[in-house]
Structure formats: structure tokens, C-alpha cells
Write a structure and sequence with these properties.
The chain is built from twelve helices and nine strands. The chain is an alpha/beta fold.
Length: 387
């Protein structure tokens, strides 16, 4: 009952960030760089074990950000900064305004862009999973960007359309690379495979003429109903590949996690996504609920039977706030979810990761540890109540 996990990313140390710069400039060998990642991942694992996290994650320390890192494992893809992409953007003024709102330099965030036929030349996250197997005997969760996010963010008109007639054609190859990845991860052994699709809330909550950095194809975004149908198709195809006798598949959706300024992040309940939830049939939905921007949890259960056989990964901690959540508030959230789900169908987690971008984390380890301590206390208290 009330099992716990993190959503994914953790802050990178100054040492690791320097090592990342050094390897990009050829001042550090791959072996030495990987050794630093290994050492710091071990610390992240120990931190989770200290507070009895049930499903251990890697912290994503070797990733530049939660989606661009895939470029390192794919052919036909290049890493491009926002400034590199600017010449291909039709509405440059709107693009620059977006960057100003996000408060990020145009060269500080990179994206994996399709510049050829896309195929996988090695596992995206297999190395992370192998590392976890060496570091802990506890259950493990591996995190991946979702197929809709990958396809959308990878497509850049003027470049990608030289190799694919449409984004739908690119999607076919994206589906294939995820099927290969799932096969390799399940061969290694993994308890939960989590796919992150934060762009879905942008689809349903943003005005039609606005975009975020997460969608490279700024001029290509279509009607929300078309986009949701496209996302539904991609997720169904990928999730179908997961052998549910060996692993559970999770879907994580939030409302943006790139700024500590809550006023610029999206607002709205999950109601517009209920059809998608029902269609894609994830085993676990890791959803943001510690912020009022997510709406009341009752809206999630406004249609009966959608969640009758699934687990809710209930977001009970805001990763962007330094302050530790009050135990009573978390317990109140759990009790609200208990009106709809049995205790074995409720997992506890932060809303999102703590460092969506390696160079711009939204929190620090000392505050994160305080949050995990409270989470551990609440979990044990709730388990005692339901014994």
C-alpha cells in the first residue's frame, strides 16, 4: 500500500556539470565522465534507499535534459539549441517572446532534431538501468520521454521534411525505436517503465497560437483534437509492446516544470485527457496534484470505470517549492484519493522531477531530502492506518 517513487530527474552537482562541459569540448574522456556519473548516481540511489523509496530511479544525471539526451543514441538526429533552431522558425517574434517568458537563454536548452532517417544505434536508457541493477536490489523504475513528445519535439519544418514526407512518417520510426527499447529494458529486468508526456497539457490548455519550447514544430501544431488523436495512436502502439507480465507501464503528465514561477505554468484539470487515459491503458498514471493548478481530484473520476483497474501515482509534493509539504496536507490528499481507490492502487510521488534541465534545476538536494523524509513518515503512518 502507498508505494513511493520519484518521477525522474535530480539536480546535477557542479562537478558533474563541469564534467559535461569538459567532455563536450574534448577535455575529458568518456571513461572518466561515466565514472563521475556512476559515483553520483550511487549517491542518488542511497538517498532514495535512506527514505525507503519503493521504486528506485536513476536521477537521470547523464541527461542534458529530459528529452534531448536521446540524440546520443539515435542516427538521423542532431542536438540543436534554441538559437540554432531560430532560422527555421516562422514566427520568430513569438518564439523570442516565449523564451523571455521562460527566462532561459536561447543557447542554454537543446533539443534533439530530426536531420535524417531516424533509427536507434544503442539503447536510450539501458546503461542507466544496468547501473541501477549494480547499485540496488530494490524494485526499479526507468524513465523515458514519451513517443508524442519525442515525435513532436524532433520535427522541425525545413529540416525534418527533407527526409520524411510528414510527421506521421517520422512517427512510424519513433514507434519502432521505442519498441526496440522496451524489448531491451525488459530483457534487463525492470519493474516500471515510465513515459513522460508533459506536452499533452499544452495541447489542451494553451491557446491555439501559443507554444512552448517542448514543441520544436511551432508552426505545425494542429487542432487539439487532432493532436490528442495523434498522441493516443503513438502511446497505444508503444504501450502495446510492453509485456505486462514482466513490467508495468506508467504515464506521467504534468503542466510544465521548467520554472519556479507558478504563474507562467499551465492550469486545468485532467478532464480533457480522460479519453486518452482510457484508450492507452497504462497501468499507472503519475499525475500532478500537489498544486491547485491541477484542479480537484474528483474530476479525475468523473467517468466511472476508467480507473477501475489502474494505479494512481498521486503527486503530493511540489518539486519547485523549497518548503516541505505539511504531513497533514499530504494525508488529506491521500484520503481524498481513497474515496475512489483502494490503498494498494495509490502510489505517492512528487508532481514532477527536480531538475528538468541539467543547467536549471528547480530545487536543491538539501530541500529534496527534507521532502523525502516527510514522504517516508506519511507512507508509514498511512500503512499503519490501513493494516
Amino acid at each position: 500500500m502507498f508505494e513511493t517513487s520519484l518521477i525522474g530527474s535530480m539536480p546535477r552537482s557542479k562537478k558533474l556539470l563541469k564534467a559535461n562541459r569538459d567532455i563536450q569540448k574534448g577535455r575529458l574522456s568518456e571513461v572518466k565522465y561515466q565514472k563521475i556519473i556512476d559515483e553520483e548516481t550511487a549517491q542518488i540511489v542511497k538517498l532514495q534507499e535512506k527514505y525507503n523509496i519503493d521504486y528506485i530511479t536513476s536521477g537521470e544525471l547523464g541527461r542534458d535534459n529530459y528529452v534531448s539526451f536521446i540524440a546520443n543514441a539515435l542516427d538521423g538526429v542532431n542536438m540543436m539549441s534554441m538559437s540554432d533552431m531560430l532560422p527555421y522558425i516562422e514566427d520568430k517574434r513569438a518564439y523570442e517572446e516565449m523564451l523571455a517568458i521562460l527566462d532561459v537563454p536561447a543557447n542554454s536548452i537543446k533539443n534533439a532534431i530530426c536531420v535524417g532517417k531516424v533509427s536507434r544505434n544503442k539503447s536510450l536508457v539501458g546503461t542507466e538501468l544496468e547501473m541501477l541493477h549494480q547499485l540496488t536490489n530494490k524494485k526499479k523504475k526507468i524513465t523515458l520521454p514519451g513517443p508524442y513528445l519525442v515525435t513532436r519535439s524532433m520535427w522541425l519544418k525545413g529540416l525534418s521534411d527533407k527526409f520524411y514526407d510528414s510527421i506521421g512518417d517520422l512517427a512510424t520510426d519513433v514507434i519502432q525505436l521505442f519498441k526496440e527499447e522496451i524489448h531491451d529494458l525488459q530483457k534487463l529486468g525492470v519493474d516500471i517503465i515510465q513515459f513522460d508526456e508533459p506536452v499533452l497539457t499544452e495541447v489542451v490548455f494553451s491557446p491555439a497560437n501559443t507554444r512552448t519550447f517542448m514543441c520544436a514544430s511551432l508552426s505545425e501544431k494542429k487542432d487539439p483534437s487532432d493532436e490528442l488523436a495523434f498522441a493516443k495512436y503513438l502511446l497505444k502502439e508503444v504501450f502495446r509492446e510492453v509485456d505486462r507480465t514482466r513490467s508495468r507501464v506508467g504515464l506521467h503528465i504534468c503542466r510544465g516544470n521548467w520554472s519556479r514561477d507558478e504563474t507562467i505554468l499551465l492550469t486545468g484539470s485532467y478532464t480533457p485527457l480522460l479519453d486518452l487515459f482510457e484508450a492507452v491503458k497504462a497501468d499507472i498514471y503519475f499525475l500532478e496534484y500537489s498544486t491547485e493548478r491541477a484542479g480537484d481530484i474528483s474530476s479525475l473520476f468523473s467517468r466511472n470505470n476508467i480507473f477501475s483497474d489502474i494505479t494512481l501515482g498521486l503527486g503530493v509534493m511540489n518539486p519547485r517549492r523549497d518548503e516541505t509539504e505539511e504531513r497533514e496536507k499530504i494525508i488529506s490528499q491521500i484520503q481524498a484519493a481513497s474515496n475512489y481507490l483502494t490503498p494498494d492502487k495509490i502510489m505517492l510521488n512528487p508532481d514532477c522531477g527536480f531538475a528538468t534541465f541539467s543547467k536549471k534545476p528547480v530545487n536543491r538536494v538539501e530541500f529534496i531530502e527534507q521532502k523525502l523524509a516527510v514522504l517516508a513518515e506519511v507512507k508509514e503512518e498511512m500503512r499503519r492506518q490501513y493494516e
